[in-house]
Amino acid sequence: MIEVAQRKVDKSEIAKIQLPPKLIPVFEGEARTRYAYGGRGSGKTRSFALMTAVYGYRWGKSGKKGQILCAREFMNSLSESSLEEIKSAILSVPWLADYYICGDKFIKSKDGNIQYTFSGLRRSLDSIKSKARILLCWVDEAEALSGRAYDVLIPTVREVDSEIWVTWNPESKYSATHERFRVNPPANSKGVMLNYTDNEWFPDVLEQTRLEDKEKRPEMYEHIWTGGFLIFSEGSYYASEMRRARDEDRISNVKYDRGKGVVTSWDLGVGDSTAIWFAQFIGTEVHLIDYYEASGVGLEHYAKILQDKGYVYDQHVFPHDVRVRELGTGKSRIETLEGLGIRDIEIAPSLLIDDGIQAVRAMLDKCWFDEEKCEKGIDSLTNYQRAWDDTGKTWRMRPSHNWASHGADSFRYLAIGYQPYNEAWDKPIRRNIKGIV
């Protein structure tokens, strides 16, 4: 139970708010950041909605003025916001209902001190900077929020003793939300994992749905109900092929064959991540022995990575834009790469993305992946998906650009760009790359 002091005309009373017991420590004491994550039916969204109103009540009654910003990554209209959830929470508590005015499109306190605002960050991120006197920002459904969105949003919430709250259902261990709050939690933060098992008021109707999901959709059950990561995402291009690879034990321990050269394929990032696959073509099989991804570093860094891995390289496959000349130096990237000792470069043909996706599908059934070294690359292929049209509520005919794009694009260049050599030509043995690093 959370206790809230209510000031009456002639006396003070203590009101009590019911929350899932596991969530109570998150709201006790001071904190800059409070967060909760987990599966469906945990009560986290309803609890956070209710507590925004409680905090607004405390601030407003003490004479503090400001706004409570309720944000989501996608919000095309108020019907897609947290408005109705918060209104329902307020109206369920008489003394909160008495303090707030809940209109069709707004929530504000009767004394004028507290006002709710609602925003979709994908389309109005820059406008957030101009919002004033944000006492509290609650980001719901925060899994898809980008690192840049956090970089813009967090400094905007700058009132004295202001707070940032975040709730989400985990999907990927590479999401900005996971890395920011679970891997490297901010200072002065309180958070918890919350699932249906932690909700004393878990309804019977959801229990029926949960049991049905467990029986009929076991591959999605942990993600939906226990806060597990999404293994095969809806709209994924390669879900069937990657599931088959796992079922056939082709995602395991794949050794480097020193008798064969290594082929690398690259997705070059400009202000974004660069991804590199390391493959060996052995008979009819494709062995993916390694994967590397990084951002914010120059080509010299990747040349050194290739050297340090100690492989003997046969070929390096690049996208067609490797020919583009840099404004500063006048050199093309291909010239820079050759200067760093990366030669034997093949340029992948400029095909339609759909044609490249079909080439990947045709190759995946021949692929064997090293589970440890290729972990992020495997996750990228598994989660590479169509973009979602939030307005039309349908999948678009183009890929979504997110963390999975880099590894998937690099793999696509491998599928369409690798040019096998004719062994009868008696090609000389290529040694490890050398050059300035």
Q: Which tags fit this structure?
A:
437 residues; seven-stranded mixed β-sheet; Nucleotidyltransferase, domain 5; disordered C terminus; alpha/beta; Rossmann fold
Question: Would you write up a description of this structure?
Answer:
It is a single chain. The protein contains 14 helices and 19 strands. By secondary structure, the protein is of the alpha/beta class. It has two domains: 200 residues, P-loop containing nucleotide triphosphate hydrolases (Rossmann fold, 3-Layer(aba) Sandwich), CATH 3.40.50.300; 187 residues, Nucleotidyltransferase, domain 5 (2-Layer Sandwich), CATH 3.30.420. It has a seven-stranded mixed sheet with strand order 11-17-14-13-12-15-16. A six-stranded parallel sheet has the order 7-4-8-9-3-10. A two-stranded antiparallel sheet has the order 1-2. Strand 8, helix 5 and strand 9 form a beta-alpha-beta unit. The C terminus is likely disordered.
Under the CATH scheme, the architecture of the largest domain is 3-Layer(aba) Sandwich
The separation of the N and C termini measures 60 Å
Largest β-sheet summary:
7 strands, mixed
Instruction: Classify the fold: give the CATH topology of the largest domain.
Output: Rossmann fold
Number of strands: 19
Number of domains: 2
**CATH-level-4 superfamily name of the largest domain:** P-loop containing nucleotide triphosphate hydrolases
